[in-house]
Amino acid sequence: MQVFNAFLKISKKTIPMALIYIGLFLVLLTFFVDSSAQNNTFEAERLSVSVIDMDNTEESKALINFISQRHDLVEIENDKDTILDALYYERTDYVLNIQEGYAEKLSNGKTNELFTNYKIPDSYTGVFVDNLVNQYVSTLSAYIAGGNNMSAAITKTETLLSEETAVTVQSFSDNKSGTEDYPIKTAYYFQFMAYIILSVLITILSSVILKINRKEIRSRTNCSCLTVTSQTAQIILGSTVVVAVIWVIFIAAALIMNGGAFTEKFLLALLNSLVFTIISAGIAILIAAVAPKSNVVNVISNIVALGMSFLCGVFVDQSLLGEGVLSASRFLPAYWYVRANNMLSGMSDEVFSINSFMSFVGIEAIFAAALFAIIILINKVKHNAQ
Amino acid sequence: MADTIVKIENLVKRYKDLIALDHLNLEIKQGEVFGLLGPNGSGKSTTISCLLSLLAFDKGNIEVFGRKMTPDNYEAKRNIGIIMQNVAVFDELTVIENIDYFCGLYIKNREERKKCVQDAIAFTELQDFTRFYPKKLSGGLLRRLNIACGIAHKPKLIILDEPTVAVDPQSRNKILEGIQKLNAEGATIIYTSHYMEEVEQICTRIAIMDKGKKIAEGTKDELKKMIKNTETVSVETSAVPADVLEKINALPHVYSACCTDGRLEVKCSGGKHNLIRILNVLQESDLHFGRVFSELPTLNDVFLEITGKALRDSD
Ligand SMILES: Nc1ncnc2c1ncn2[C@@H]1O[C@H](COP(=O)(O)OP(=O)(O)OP(=O)(O)O)[C@@H](O)[C@H]1O
Ligand SMILES: [Mg+2]
Predict the structure, then answer these.
(1) b/e string for B78-103 if b means 16 or more Cβ within 10 A?
(2) Which of A340, A298, A70 is nearest to A191 (CA)?
């Protein structure tokens, strides 16, 4: 097992280089996941709202309760200077003054002059709370006009508005919330994995194979009583171990990201990433077979990994890529990997179906088979040339 | 008669139009230190590559340990140690890991291998450098590592292809002594070089190659007897008149005399007292002379006389 042992020893020497890629990967990942999460924060963000209740009725308390479910209530004195100070120093974002007679006006179907307010002019927080209050009042008065008594109308309004918010959030984030068993974070992780697996495998596998196969070393090893078959088998075994270890590390991280849950979709994502990892290994071995020297491997790694990632929608959503790019990238395996992953998370318009998912993975498998056929062919040609 | 270890018959190797080996015949016996001497590009490394079945050849037959050599003659390969002209070690492995790797290609047993590796380290005196990476080794140390990797499995036949290139004289002597020691311990050695002094120093039998052909073969004394030059006398003197040169040329055993740049060079073939006779002629002609040298022939003279050109321009 000399060749195998040497293979692993040399692989270990490439860990620092691989760590650089992984570090870059993590930075990219947090950046993307964060920026995608920002789409959802509009809903999630809680403002500081102060309410001064001059009416002090069941109805006004219901409104305060409604606001408090969405925002943080901040106590404030009913004094103009204090209020302006509080707004200025951002102790509060919005001050709502419920006028005396709020409950009475509502029950009579009147909605004018229910409130006065203090807000920062032209701020989105001001508009945001205005909208919320207006929506509440108009919904409530619609229920009252529809013949509901006050308390029934309040309950129905609360139910309706809490449902509505959920819907608005969905459309606002452009479907980028993923699904329950395959959240957006995991989806992005697997999407970027296409880039990182390719980079890391080319960096490690290609350079190790090139080093093991250096002409002098290979000739010298061929002088020994180790059979060529055994040599090749040991290199294949070494490659398999290296690839498997790398894949397992990335999958372990994905599992942590997925909250440790082996959901059905997560398992499908594993399958997708396994097939793509085999493709990446094939690309790495192919590069080792044609690269002139090991010091150009890093350059090739960047060109291949970055190029394929950009073209196939790893960095930019496939929906944002032009038709021309997409029709070309169909001939690259990463396209099918990303498309399958998008389908799992619901990030694209494609509705998940196990059959089309499997057909995408199948196309990837064909790419893998083709790559290994080319590798075998090249090695045959090289062998005969000797 | 000792056993034949290597037998090469009518070996022809072409690289496209270039004939690298031209009907080469060699026979190497057990216990020899066989020298393959030739200038750059004469086909020494090509011979070794064919011998090891690393290269396919166009014609001929190679037998090692009495059996035809083929890429899958692993029995023969087990008993061959090879030190390549181009150092073949892993830059990513330390000295000891490298030796262990190459030794392990032959010896599977861990305990046995460990001992062999230690022996090889001691033999090449690399004890202080076992944890070094090859990049950190000087040229001489790197060559010694290359040798350690080749001999660790204690082969019966050791092939060294120019193992002393770019090595300082002191390290070179160590390497040469080591080779003789390996030979004394029972190994048969094939040694290629274009340094004739090395070959003269350690080889028991020598083949001289040029342009893929073997142009002479024998012990160094046999080789020197092949040529008519047995002694070259050089005298530092002023210009020698033509009539004096004629007189010297007429002396018995002298076959060539010429004077250039205040240096008279006379080549003799056999006979005794050549130096005294030449000096007598100079004295009779009242010519003053300075330092006087008498040199015995070198392998370079052998090469020069057979091919009409020097083995090496200078050394
Ligand atoms: N792979 C090759 N392709 C074409 N020609 C080659 C190849 N290898 C060697 N040659 C040629 O074959 C001839 C013999 O080369 P070889 O390396 O055997 O010489 P050598 O005696 O070992 O020389 P050196 O002292 O420089 O090592 C040279 O003319 C060389 O240019
Ligand atoms: Mg050579």
Answers:
(1) bbbbbbbbebbbbebbbbbbbbbbbb
(2) A340
Q: What is the pLDDT of residue A35?
A: 63
Distance, in Å, from the CA atom of A277 to the CA atom of B14, rounded to the nearest integer, reads: 44
Q: Which residues line ligand 1 (CB under 6 A)?
A: B 15, 18, 20, 38, 40-46, 85, 162, 194
Q: What is the pLDDT of residue B26?
A: 93
Identify the pLDDT of residue A171.
Answer: 35
Q: Which of the four pLDDT bands, split at 50, 70 and 90, describes residue A340?
A: very high
**C-alpha dist (Å) from residue A152 to A56, A107, A155:** 19, 12, 5
Domain boundaries, chain A: 2-39+173-385, 48-162
> What is the fold, at CATH topology level, of the domain defined by B4-222?
Rossmann fold (3.40.50)
Give the ipTM of the model, two decimals please: 0.81
* CA-closest candidate to residue A14, choices A234, A207, A241: A207
The hierarchical CATH code for the domain A48-162 is 3.40.1710.10
Interface test with B, best of A8, A225, A295 (most B CBs within 10 A): A225
Whether B289 has its CB under 8 Å from any CB of chain A: the answer is: no
What tokens were used for B81?
């140690």
Q: What is the pTM of this model?
A: 0.72
Counting ligands in written order, the one closest to the CA of B14 is 1
Q: Is residue A291 scored above 60 in pLDDT?
A: yes
Q: Determine contact, residues B225/B232, Cβ cutoff 8 Å.
A: no
**Chain A touched by B72 (CB under 8 Å):** yes
User: Could you read off the pLDDT of A115-146 as tens digits, one per residue?
Assistant: 888 888 777 788 788 888 888 888 888 888 88
To test the pocket of ligand 1, the residue of B8, B13, B45 to mutate (highest count of ligand atoms within 8 Å of its CB) is B45
Report how far residue A110's alpha carbon sits from residue A104's, in angstroms, rounded to the nearest whole number. 9
Residue of chain B minimizing CA distance to A210 = B90
- Structure confidence at residue A167 as a pLDDT band (50, 70, 90): very low
Domain topology for B231-296:
Alpha-Beta Plaits (3.30.70)
A126, A161 Cβ separation under 8 angstroms: no
User: Average pLDDT in the A350-364 region?
Assistant: 90
Under a CB-based contact definition with an 8 Å cutoff, are residues B39 and B194 in contact? yes
Supply the residue whose CA is at minimum distance from atom 9 of ligand 1. B46
* Chain B interface includes A70 (CB < 8 A): no
Residue of chain A whose alpha carbon sits nearest to that of B76: A225
> How many angstroms away from the CA of B91 is the closest CA of chain A?
9
A298, A200 in Cβ contact below 8 A? no
Domain extents in chain B: 4-222, 231-296
